[in-house]
# Entry
Amino acid sequence: MQRKRVLPLATLLLCAPALAGTVPAAAASQAGPASGPARPLRILLTNDDGYNAPGIRLAFARLTAAGHDVTIVAPLTNQSGAGTKGSNAPAITVRHPEPKVWAVDGSPGDSVAFGLSEVFEGKAPDLVVSGTNYGPNVAALATHSGTVGGAVAGLEAGIPAIALSTGGVAAPDPVTTINAMGPTLDFAVRLIDRLRARAGSGRLLPEGVGLNVNHPVIGADGKGTPAAVATTFQDPQPVLKSDFTDAGDGTWKVGVKVDLRTPARGGDVEAVSAGKIAISPINADWNTGPLDLAVARALLAGLRP
# Structure
């Protein structure tokens, strides 16, 4: 049985047709209750590819050019696949190589924790943006993604958060994936503008809810425009399959291949495979919703310590 998390209706309304790229600019400007130009946002920008990766540097440039006050607080080294990992070490190395840039020798979660505690001490950011990631974070990839983990760290602290990823469902091609980061960040700017317009002076997103955005690679050069925007859920399939070969010396060689199955209808894999931008609302916890809770209660009824 496919399980879907029950998400706040307000989130679905925010993400639905209003985010489609076909909405005229004039209509977009009138969509929210705020009057006059929306104020710039203070953004904590993180990722899992490292503070100097192409995706986060392009995100910094584009969001700054859009008028936002952006500060990078990201891992010192590549932390892909770190998920929601947090460090329990007694000390952590942090570098400040340039203005508005902090590099934390830890996971995306460590970076966001440091940023909120120290860099943004006394005044929390309006938004945490994580990415844009090199490659997709759909289906089970999102569960283990450091990009999504960075956004979850923001949500846990009560900050609205968006995870951004660029890539199709196959192994990413370096040239086209990096090229597609331009359209990804163009869309991210429009998305944030829409959320600001609808929020007025309130929160950008409902409390505890973030967005996992997956932008496909379109065209031979990767610079094409996606077919549409789809509000999706996380497809339950694993996407990757691991294989282990005994090397005979106590170690095992690890191989990983893409094992794409039939996409779930309405899921993120289906949307990205069709050349659409997939936006999946996410929570900062692993609750499965009231239906699964009721089923679990029935299964466990009468159980005693």
Notes: Residues 1-6, 8-12, 20-36 have pLDDT under 50 and may be disordered. The radius of gyration is 20 Å. The first strand starts at residue 42 and ends at 46.
